[in-house]
Amino acid sequence: MFLFWHNPEKFNGNYLIMIYYIRRVVLLMVLCVPIFLVAQEQEIEKQDSITQTDEGMSIEQISGETETLRQRLNSLKEVLKPSMQTVKVDSVLDTAYVAINSKRDTLLEELEVISRRDLRNREVEWQNYRKQLKKLQGVLNDRTSDITDVNDELVEELEKWKATKDRLTNSSESPEVFGSLDTVIVTLDDLITMAQSRLDSVFTIQTRLTELILVVDETMSEMKRVGDQMKQDYFTLDAPPIWALGKVDTILMDSTVVDENKADVNTASNKKDLWDKVAYDGKQFVDFVVDNVGTILLQIMLIFLIIWMIVRMKRGWDFFEFEVQNKVDEQAYKILNNPIVSALVVGVLISSMFFEGVIPIFGEFEIMVVLIGTSVLLPKITTKELRLFLHLIILSYLIEIFSVYFDEEDVFSRWIMILNSVVLIGALIVGKRAMKNHPDRFQKVKWMHRWLLPFYTVVAGVSILTNVIGMVNLSSVVLHGVFTSVALGMVVLLSVRIVTSILVVFFKLRKSQNAKALTAMVDATNQRFQPVLIFIGLVLWVIFTLIGFDVYENVIEWFNDSLHIGWTIGDMRFSLGGVLAFVGFFVGALLMAKLAAVIFHDEWMIQALPRGVAPAMSLLLRIIIISIGFYLAMRSAGVDVSKLEFMFGALGVGIGFGLQNVVLNFIAGLILAFERPINLGDTIEIDQEKGVVTNIGVRSSNIRTYSGSEAIIPNGDLISKKVVNWTLANRDRRSRILMKTSSSADPEMVIDLLTNIAKDHELTYSDPAPKTYFYGYGIDGNLDFALMYWTTFSDTLKTDSEISLSIFKALKDAGIQAPIPTRRIIEER
């Protein structure tokens, strides 16, 4: 105000803004005063309660409180009894401590020469150890929480009884009262001591458990280090060239950089023959099944549930005798005829997410089941030429599984890898030709045979070259990545088609039961839902492709590092991650708003919901989604919304003066959403514009006129002006056809004739029935008649034309002439 007083010219432009903020400050002060008063009263009440608690109890309350405390102490003693779960955890730790440390020492000795497959087995094994230890830690935490609650309650009771004793010390109460107080205090002291003892014992076990978890974490970190080192060694010559394998022994003997300890361990490891490794994998498989028997049973139940559902749908298809009318029906029918295969593919693919960690041998078993199911079903719903491609993919996978039981540096293993590359290249060529010959069957994934399969063919050829020159690890990883990407692509394609077909059949069955508003759901499933499934499948395919090429963690790490790149502008700091988050949230909100508009504007949704509800929900959802998306986008970008109050205040003033029409139309759009005077598909008339409402937007609405043009009407006009809605309550409309005959016609005969013509027409209503009215003589001496009948609004023009033509023919056949206009010439004299 001082600046305003001495420099009024500086504040003339912002006078309204300053007044706006002064009003806001005063309003905040008025609102804060009651809050401060309430907080002060609560603080005073709190102090009074504390003072009252410190004073203890009166002499009259001691007897009742003693009995209540006795009953409560009995329940607290039950809690403080030794817990069998804690004892069990303690006994498990005694065994686990020795076993885990022993396995850790053995693992650390083998880490330098361990294969990727064995490393994955060890990672899953130690993840299970950590999961089990975390469960034990949860048991101890629950026990600690229970004892702590008991201890806090006992301490509170002890303070209350001590305060009572201190208050009654100088009074003339009998010694029996003090004796009972001392007994209660001693009992509480003993229980507190017991609780402390129980806590100490639990803390001791927790300490041992924490140390064991740290050992597991350190071991897992060491395995991660070895895995990262393997990734760094991909582009190194880890084996001699394939043409120099006969000189390997000489090279190793003359080398001065070979680690003797590593060589000794490697020699001991190579003594394991093929059957030992197979037996080891078999034991790992059995142990994994035993440890995850609950999850596996849930997986089997899911598969049987899908089989049952498909069988029920097949019976419904046969019962209602649906005919195969298009490719979608053909695909759905073939899937229904293969319930077991369809359930195995989808069930195993979904239930694989139930497991927290899967060992390689179990994962290979699941992949083989899915691949076999895919090779059986996918050619049936696409083309039989794809069967050879899938069989070669399965053969490639079998070769890969077989090769893991040999040392990667062994000459036999390397030739197996080359054979696997050749088989995979052949599969890619066959698959590309099959997709190219039938493009209509692979319309959604045409990029696979155009770009992906030729690219992977070249990559598989590169894997042969890297194997030959001595980059065995790189060749193995590249080959595994190509196989994973191609095989998973086929599995995802089949899964999307199975789920889509199940939905289509489900809606067909609902249609057969005469459920309303579900007839268009079949088309909506293919047009709306299937692209969503394809997008989800594409995301999963990209993720598992990166995992197959063993670069997923590197890509994620690089992406996270890139997100921290930032810039500072004034007091605000922006990062690349914040900018991407802003764009992602805002664009996502726009897409979700568009999706909501598309869904609620579809014919099936308009029919399913009460009249006018679908467009109203569409408008409200779009406003809410865009508003929330913008707010989240601002917050995710690191913008402090509270610092933008000045901008919002100025924007409010600007809206108040310059954007009144925009705000008016926006509010009018909300009124249209709630009141629903017009709806999508209504025929309205406003400002000499007549047409069908095609869109009700936030600011304006669109009307498609009968001449074909699009009229954009502001929402404010739809609220403030006169609007004629021809289809608001119903679509029934009365038509009126005026007819004139000569004066010689029989009126009753004409009435019967016109009425019967209207009654016999198929588009007129029988209730109310058509009627014809006679108006007597006209100006020219003719007879005037009016035929009135009811019909549907959309059929009005067609019905009027057909009935008028029938009247013309009927009058002509009956010999009733039309009136002849009479003109008289009056000569003025």
Number of helices: 28
In the predicted model, the low-confidence regions spanning at least 5 consecutive residues are: 1-54, 248-272, 512-519
Number of strands: 10
Strand content: 5-15%
* Rg, Å, rounded: 42 Å
Straight-line distance between termini? 94 Å
Please outline the major beta sheet: 5 strands, antiparallel
**Which structural class do you get from the secondary structure elements?**
alpha+beta
Main β-sheet, spatial strand arrangement: 6-5-4-3-7
What is the overall pLDDT average? 77
**Quaternary structure:** single chain
Helix content: over 70%
What would you call the shape? extended
Write a short abstract of this structure:
This protein is of the alpha+beta class and 829 residues long. The protein is 71% helix and 7% strand. The strands form three sheets. The chain has a five-stranded antiparallel sheet. A three-stranded antiparallel sheet has the order 8-10-9, covered by helices on one side.
Throw out a few tags for this protein.
disordered N terminus, about 850 residues, five-stranded antiparallel β-sheet, 28 helices, single chain, alpha+beta, three-stranded antiparallel β-sheet
What does this structure look like?
The protein is α+β, with helices and mostly antiparallel strands and 829 residues long. Helix content is 71%, strand content 7%. The chain is built from 28 helices and ten strands. It has helices at 2-6, 8-11, 15-54, 59-80, 84-110, 116-168, 175-232, 248-254, 260-270, 274-291, 293-320, 327-336, 339-351, 360-381, 386-403, 411-437, 446-469, 472-512, 521-548, 552-563, 576-601, 603-608, 613-636, 645-658, 660-675, 715-720, 747-760, 796-813; strands spanning 566-569, 572-575, 683-686, 689-696, 700-705, 710-714, 724-725, 732-741, 771-777, 783-792. A hairpin with a 5-residue loop joins β9 (771-777) and β10. It is extended.
